[in-house]
């Protein structure tokens, strides 16, 4: 009987601990208006890096290093990828970033999902939405968003890692302005 009581107690303790983790992640997202960070992105084995700023909801500005002056910008409606020689514009709603950049969507999904602890360092949630499967990762100590994994609009496997994260900074009003075509 003692054995079953111990198993029941450990199950309750684990459930409480998991709920506490979710609540801390959700509160951290609620308290975050914007964040900037360094990133490393692996798309089908091609690694790029740079700096990004996210402003909720659905805005992002990224400058890539050593890649033909590549920038990625979303104003909340459109997503533009621009280099010296190319300019691509997409409706944001057609991309996985539409979901990743929507903290209210993330919060609502996290409430209903089971988290997975990876190597006692990362907290992972897998989100399925229509044709998208997105893995979102949070730091196990700070509860900050630290990356995502998805398939992009070209069916490329994309892994993005965030580092040097800073939150709730004063941002330029023009940062998320869509640039003109080349």
Q: What keyword list fits this structure?
A:
outer membrane lipoprotein receptor (LolB), chain A, globular, 182 residues, alpha+beta, 11-stranded antiparallel sheet, disordered N terminus
Write a structural description.
- This protein is α+β, with helices and mostly antiparallel strands and 182 residues long.
- Helix content is 24%, strand content 43%.
- It has one domain: Lipoprotein localisation LolA/LolB/LppX (outer membrane lipoprotein receptor (LolB), chain A), CATH 2.50.20.10.
- An 11-stranded antiparallel β-sheet has the order 6-5-4-3-2-1-11-10-9-8-7, with no helix packed on it.
- A hairpin with a 2-residue loop joins strand 4 and strand 5.
- It is globular and about 50 Å long.
- The protein starts with a helix and ends in a 15-residue tail after the last strand.
- The N terminus is likely disordered.
Topology:
Elements (H helix, E strand, L loop, with lengths): L1 H30 L2 E10 L2 E10 L3 E6 L6 E5 L2 E5 L4 E5 L5 H4 L2 H10 L3 E3 L3 E8 L2 E8 L5 E7 L5 E11 L15
Antiparallel strand pairs: 1-2, 1-11, 2-3, 3-4, 4-5, 5-6, 7-8, 8-9, 9-10, 10-11
Helix pairs in contact: 1-3
How would a crystallographer describe the biggest sheet? Answer: 11 strands, antiparallel
CATH structural fold name? outer membrane lipoprotein receptor (LolB), chain A
* Computed CA radius of gyration, to the nearest angstrom: 18 Å
Please state the average pLDDT score.
88
**Distance between the first and last residues' Cα:** 74 Å
Secondary-structure-based class equals alpha+beta
Question: What would you give as the CATH superfamily?
Answer: Lipoprotein localisation LolA/LolB/LppX
Question: Helical segment tally?
Answer: 3
Indicate the CATH class.
Mainly Beta
> Which H/E pattern describes the elements?
HEEEEEEHHEEEEE
Oligomer: single chain
């Amino acid at each position: 009987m003692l054995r079953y009581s111990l198993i029941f107690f450990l199950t309750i303790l684990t459930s409480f601990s998991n709920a506490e983790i979710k609540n801390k992640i959700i509160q951290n997202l609620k308290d975050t208006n914007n964040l900037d960070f360094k990133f490393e992105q692996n798309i089908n084995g091609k690694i790029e890096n740079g700096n990004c700023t996210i402003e909720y909801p659905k805005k992002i500005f990224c400058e890539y290093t050593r890649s033909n002056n590549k920038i990625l910008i979303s104003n909340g409606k459109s997503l533009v990828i621009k280099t010296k020689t190319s300019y691509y514009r997409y409706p944001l709603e057609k991309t996985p970033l539409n979901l990743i950049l929507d903290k209210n969507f993330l919060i609502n999904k996290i409430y209903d999902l089971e988290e997975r602890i990876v190597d006692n360092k990362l907290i992972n949630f897998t989100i399925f939405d229509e044709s998208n499967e997105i893995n979102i990762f949070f730091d196990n100590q700070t509860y900050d968003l630290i990356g995502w994994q998805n398939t992009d609009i070209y069916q490329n496997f994309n892994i993005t890692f965030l580092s040097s994260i800073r939150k709730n900074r004063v941002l330029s009003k023009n940062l998320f302005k869509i640039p003109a075509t080349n």
